[in-house]
Amino acid sequence: MQDIKLDKIKNKLVLLIYKLSPELLNWLDRLGLFKRSLPALIKNPQWSIGIYVGQSPLKFMAAKNVKNPVIECHDVSDVTAELVADPFMVKVEQTWYMFFEIYNQQTRKGEIGLAVSQDTVKWEYQQIVLAEKFHLSYPYVFVWMNEYYMIPETGEAKSIRLYKASKFPTHWTFVDNLVSGSVFLDPSIFRYDNRWWLFVETNPYSKYDTLRLYYADELTGPWIEHPNSPIINGNPHIARPAGRVVVMHDRIIRYTQDCYPFYGIQVRAFEITELSPTSYQEREVAGASVLTPSPTGFGWNGGGMHHIDPHLNQDGTWIACVDGWV
């Protein structure tokens, strides 16, 4: 118990230093001062899911009428959940369906769970909807040609796997491997200029610093790696995807996790200014981070936030499911 309390004190200290001066924390880390305390930050974190709102896809805040977090481990009723994270939503008529990772304490792997809501304020957990022999997370759900698809993270299978709803929202069938041969983390698909595009992090040593880009004419491929890929190499601040890619006419926003000096600090945004099969350019959006941890270091997201799935409402405002840890 004393060690746990000491870890929490170290966690708060590191978070405070990071907020005051990331450069100072990086310098202290290079000296080796945090070799013991930084791993403690990602040891047994308590992950949960919340709802945020905003006037644009670049700035979000907690919804005033929502009591965050809206989904916690104890809400999961069919398995013993060690964490809930990586939420993605889809709205069908008047119902919101949220898919998210549940880390099953018994199987010691991630599985995909489902919750539903009529108003995004109150959510009701339903069940596990997808489980495999390998770890699943990041259930990127999307609609194409009136069919529901999902590309979860399946890094342990060393492939990017496409699933299709045989009976939405509870039954999902494996369609095909889109790309194989590496550890692929957080694959994020989007459609632009009559093509499919896909970002994915690929560093095999959990450094979270390599972002690759693929494209295809058809959803099932063949998928081709972009000639500029990896588009990010050796930078854990901006490489790992952090949720749904937003496409608004000719504007494309990709979200990225800041994974240094430790995993899941905050979410940053980049605007893709040039995208074709032969070219790629992007710039970081000004205005600091899209999601940051609670400024006090306490609360459900006091440790960090690392995921966002934004959706445009009919009135022009935005709503997003997010996650956080403490």
From TrEMBL:
Lipid metabolism as UniProt keyword: no
PANTHER family: ENDO-1,4-BETA-XYLANASE, PUTATIVE (AFU_ORTHOLOGUE AFUA_2G04480)-RELATED
Domain Glucosamine inositolphosphorylceramide transferase 1 N-terminal, residue spans: 46-324
Organism: Microseira wollei NIES-4236
Name by which UniProt lists this protein: Glucosamine inositolphosphorylceramide transferase 1 N-terminal domain-containing protein
Listed InterPro entries: GINT1_N, Glyco_hydro_beta-prop_sf, Glycosyl_Hydrlase_43_Enz
GO BP of this protein: xylan catabolic process
Keywords: Carbohydrate metabolism, Polysaccharide degradation, Xylan degradation
Domain of life (superkingdom): Bacteria
Record-linked Pfam families: GINT1_N
Presence of the UniProt keyword Chaperone in the record: no
